[in-house]
Amino acid sequence: MNEDVGEVPFPGENELDETDALRAEVAQLKEQLLRAMADAENTRTRARKDRDEAAKYAASGITKDLLSVADNLRRALESVPAEAIEQNEHLKSLVTGVEMTEKSLLEAFEKNHIKRIDPVGERLNPHYHEAMVEIEDPERAAGTVSQVFEPGYVLHDRLL
């Protein structure tokens, strides 16, 4: 005889407990799968965005080097008095050549989404402008750019 006479389980009760446990585990695994899929999609989206940004701004290194060339061409043109150009045909030809070179360089910049910004008369934007000095100008509101010491450039929407 069996001495251990205790509560006899209802037939199938263990199977019901096991089924509930398995259902709970399946639900948990489904939730983990959905989270993993969402994480994978977020990772793909971030990678795509990073790749697009890298391609968009890939030329910024060489571009920064060429900006000083554009600025120096402009300085060279501004340093020659208009009277001297009118009086000397050789100088006039040289200035015309420098102007054409500057124009060609700026067109190449424009073609590659690089723009020179000229903020004179605009409100100071700390994302694009660096205030060197503050001067009173009766013709302009406070916080307005009155003079540019060195032009700025943007590549797409990023200041170079």
Helicity range: 55-70%
- Given helix and strand content, the structural type is mainly alpha
Sheet with the most strands? 3 strands, antiparallel
- What is the 3D form? elongated
Rg, nearest Å: 35 Å
Average pLDDT level: 86
Through-space gap between termini: 92 Å
Q: Regions with pLDDT < 50 over 5+ consecutive residues?
A: none
Q: Could you state the order of secondary-structure elements as H and E?
A: HHHHEEE
Let me know the number of strands.
3
How much of the sequence lies in strands comes to 5-15%
- Helix count, DSSP H or I runs of 4 or more residues: 4
Task: Name the strands of the widest sheet in spatial order.
Answer: 1-2-3
Structural overview:
By secondary structure, this protein is mainly alpha-helical. 58% of the residues lie in helices and 6% in strands. The chain has four helices and three strands, in the order ααααβββ. A three-stranded antiparallel β-sheet has the order 1-2-3. Helix 2 runs antiparallel to helix 4. It is elongated and about 120 Å long. The termini are far apart.
